[in-house]
Amino acid sequence: MPPFILTCPSSRGIGLELTRRLLRTTTLPVIATARTDLEGLREKILGGLDEEGFRERGERLEVRRVDVTDESTISELASHITQRFGPPPKSHLRLAFLTAGILHPEKSPSQIVYSDALETYKVNVISHLLLFKHLSPFLPRKSTTLEPEQGLPNDHAIWAMMSARVGSVSDNSLGGWYSYRSSKSAVNQLAKSFDIHLKQSTGDKAIAVSLHPGTVKTGLSKEFWKGVPKGKLFSGEFAAERLHDVVRGLDTEVGRGRCWDWEGKEISP
Fold first, then answer.
1. Are strands 233-234 and 259-261 parallel, antiparallel or unpaired?
2. How many H-runs (helices) and E-runs (strands) does the chain carry?
């Protein structure tokens, strides 16, 4: 069975644009996810593509229901992948972009709200634990033979999680955004820990990384658009193009287990 690509979630912003880009630039099946309105998302994804190759891209796209805060939906996705592509190692995940994220921007400790902080950790951190638990078994094994694939690294798979520059402890000179900052620091720690596991289980056949997309014109950052320097507020399409290019250029020596920004520069922990 062929390898496949996963974007999760895929309903808006960077996840949506990454799904479109991967349909344009690769030839593999793409599994996209959303919590609701699956058919509407399918139409939105395909509606943003040019007419050339439209039918072929539509045949490669599958939209499945996943709520990243509900483990049962992630488990159901894993079961579906097994049914469609075969169990590991017969099938393998070649590229995963995990982009879930929310922001409650506390400016002072007095603004920390328990329910908001808990939601931040559920979406920004625990989701990655659950996705890796259920879906990392589909990443290649040491014995897996990887064929060159259009638009992807030739010799390894990539598990890529969305982080942010504010997750860097060494770069933190402003403070604030307590739950969001710490959640993104946790994502960077998970990228390193997941990568150590992959190094042990897959050798050089798969790596894990975290990514900083820059400030992207999405609902998450809307409140802060006015303060972004000229030329540094990116469209979702631009961010998707840059992140795809970055992961394509990562090797299994220097690239793995680190946080990379949209320019392909490492962000220090």
1. unpaired
2. 8, 10
CA 251 to chain centre: 18
DSSP string, 135-172: HGGGSPPTTPPPPP-TTS-SS-EEEEEE--GGG-STT-
Q: Cα–Cα distance between 212 and 242 in angstroms, integer?
A: 10
Could you report the per-residue pLDDT of 188-222, keeping only the tens digit for each? 999 999 999 999 999 999 999 999 998 887 766 55
Distance (Å, whole) CA 149 – CA 154: 6
Is the bond into 148 cis (omega within 30 degrees of 0)? no
Task: Report CA 159 to chain centroid distance, whole Å.
Answer: 7
219 within 8 A of 12, measured Cβ to Cβ: yes
Residue 115 or residue 236, greater confidence = 115
pLDDT of residue 229: 67
CA distance 244 to 152: 9
- Rounded Cα distance between 203 and 20, Å, is 30
Type of residue numbered 81: I
> If we measure between CA atoms, which residue out of 49, 40, 39 comes closest to residue 17?
49
Tokens of 169: 């402890």
